[in-house]
Write a structure and sequence with these properties.
Elements: E1 2-7, H1 9-14, H2 27-30, E2 32-39, E3 54-55, H3 64-80, E4 84-85, E5 98-104, H4 116-122, E6 124-128, E7 144-145, H5 157-169, E8 172-174, H6 180-189, E9 195-196, H7 213-221, E10 225-228, H8 232-235, H9 248-261, E11 266-268, H10 287-296, H11 301-320, H12 323-330, H13 336-342, E12 350-354, H14 360-367, E13 371-376, H15 379-389, E14 395-399, E15 410-415, H16 427-437, E16 438-450, E17 462-463, H17 465-471, E18 475-488, E19 494-506
Parallel strand pairs: 1-2, 2-5, 4-5, 5-6, 6-8, 9-10, 10-11, 12-13, 12-15, 13-14, 15-16, 16-17
Antiparallel strand pairs: 3-7, 16-19, 18-19
Bound molecules: zinc ion.
């Protein structure tokens, strides 16, 4: 199985061109299992250089709204392709084309990150902070040969915030195209392994786009990975752009990086359908020939497995499961709504925790001697919860969307910040199930969102105060706290909240 760090197939299709390298119909035959699919707002291309030495000016900044519209269109193209957009490592399987949604250059994102969470929901799992131009988050390197990647200022405050938000959500931060000052800003602050999806060794090819030895060392020390770019201008010692470039040039970079920082830190980052590649390779059809060349150079068995897919899988696993970091930041305190309800019971009983998330409420219930069924759509969250609960806990877990799940009758149903995320059309049925499942004398605890919540426009289930009161008609209300004001989201952004914190006893 071959997983690849970068391709521009979507851009080819978006600009109405035929793919040069990626023929999805033949992917299975050559073991191409996909990888990072870039969405890229080009905003007009640079003149392509023909000969080294070359020096191209930095592309001017791109207007954000145009970038947003372009990348939105490209996302729709990707979603319509015969590929599987993967959001979790377990979903990446051989025998099909797995697409990791990647934005190359963060121009389409709002600098205040207000739309990052909705992109994440849509499937975005990797972001290149910049392409080769400045944007609100940082500065890219201009294309030049020979040249140093040390070309300008580091990340902006928005760039720092983006790295932190990606760490929290579990999104890869890609340093390819980033200048050196920006690279070191990422290296100092990220909590995830450092990833360069499509860059090479500067010691072998002095392109500004390539990584110095010090940068390679930092990537290795972080447990990260470098995807080797197949573009001759990033491979060759003379920087020439010619398809008469032997496959040994790719092997040379793999070898250099593996020797310097270890074979567990090098992978492929083809740049298929974005650059011209060696004629001997041609496209994905030539991948078996590249593997032969690597075998001849001594990369076999386990080493070859690491290079072709194992290293990418390891880094994705590390990066996409942010729960450890999330736990530290979010803390384990149970929600006041749950505490209000649970303290009113004389003895522990059986609780259902809908959309348990990090499990802060489930763990509190277990501590208090309750039996708990926790339901969450994220298998990672459920795994982590089980780990934290430890052996012998009276905990049962289920991976399911709470809209589809069923559960037995319970003494307490807890739904902390869960129910508003049910699509409005499905809410009445879900609420009826919630009410039905609670035994007489049992309790409900949770949140509903009001109409002035900032997220009200984004398709959540929203209620007026009168509607919440009506929903609670089957209950003797014990807690009714309407909150409206600014407050932090999970990733620490400030938003306007309008929330009803409610708890009550079923009549
Ligand atoms: Zn690129």
């Amino acid at each position: 199985m071959i997983l690849d760090g970068h391709n521009d197939l979507v851009d080819r299709l978006w600009t109405g061109k035929k793919p040069m390298h990626i023929d999805l119909a033949n992917a299975g035959e050559v073991g191409f299992a996909g990888g990072f699919f870039a969405l890229w707002a080009s905003g007009g291309r640079l003149e392509t250089p023909r000969h080294a030495p070359y020096s191209l000016p930095l592309d001017p900044p791109l207007e954000r709204e145009q970038a947003r519209l372009d990348v939105e269109e490209q996302a729709m193209i990707l979603e319509a392709l015969d590929v599987t957009i993967v959001k979790r490592v377990e979903e990446i399987v051989p025998g099909r084309v797995n697409a990791i949604m990647h934005i190359e250059g963060a121009e389409p994102l709002a600098p205040d990150l207000s739309d990052l969470e909705s992109w994440f929901q849509r499937g975005l799992r990797s972001i290149g902070i910049v392409w080769s131009r400045p944007n609100a988050f940082g500065s890219g390197v201009p294309f030049a040969f020979p040249g140093s990647p040390d070309t300008g200022p580091g990340l902006t405050q928005a760039g720092h915030d983006l790295v932190q938000a990606c760490n929290l959500l579990g999104i890869v931060v890609d340093v390819s195209h980033l200048n050196e000052a920006g690279f070191w800003d990422v290296a100092r602050h990220t909590q995830a392994p450092i990833v360069a999806t499509h860059s090479n060794a500067h010691a072998l090819c002095a392109s500004t786009r390539n990584l110095t030895d010090a940068q390679l060392d930092a990537i290795g020390a972080s447990g990260g990975v470098v995807g080797v770019n197949f573009g001759p201008m990033f491979l060759r010692e003379d920087g020439e752009i010619t398809s008469r470039t032997p496959l040994s040039e790719i092997v040379r970079h793999v070898d250099y990086i593996a020797t310097r920082i270890g074979v567990e830190h090098v992978a492929f980052g083809s740049d298929f359908d974005g650059v011209n590649v060696p004629r001997k390779l041609g496209g994905i059809a030539g991948l078996p020939r590249l593997l032969d060349a690597l075998r001849k150079a001594g990369y076999d068995g386990e080493a070859l497995e690491r290079i072709t897919h194992g290293n990418w899988l390891r880094v994705l696993e590390e990066t996409w499961k942010p729960w450890g970091r999330y736990f530290r930041l979010a803390g384990l305190d149970a929600r006041p709504t749950l505490l209000d309800a649970v303290e009113r019971f004389a003895v522990p009983g059986f609780a259902v925790d809908l959309g348990a998330g990090t499990g802060r409420d489930t763990l509190e219930l277990l501590r208090r001697g309750w039996r708990v069924l926790s339901i969450d759509k994220e298998a990672d969250a459920v795994d982590r919860l089980q780990e934290h609960a430890g052996e012998g806990a009276q905990l049962e877990t289920r991976v399911a969307r709470f809209e589809d799940a069923s559960w037995p009758a319970c003494d307490l149903l807890n739904a902390s910040f869960t129910l508003p995320f049910c699509p409005p059309a499905e809410f009445p049925r879900l609420w009826a199930r919630v009410v039905d499942s609670i035994v007489a004398g049992g309790r409900f605890a949770g949140q509903l969102f009001g109409e002035r919540d900032e997220w009200a426009r984004t398709g959540l289930t929203i209620h007026t105060r009168a509607e919440v009161e009506e929903l609670l008609a089957p209950f003797e209300v014990e807690l009714f706290d309407e909150f409206e004001g600014e407050g932090p989201t999970v990733i620490g952004k400030t938003k306007h909240w309008h929330v009803f914190h409610v708890a009550g006893r079923k009549r």
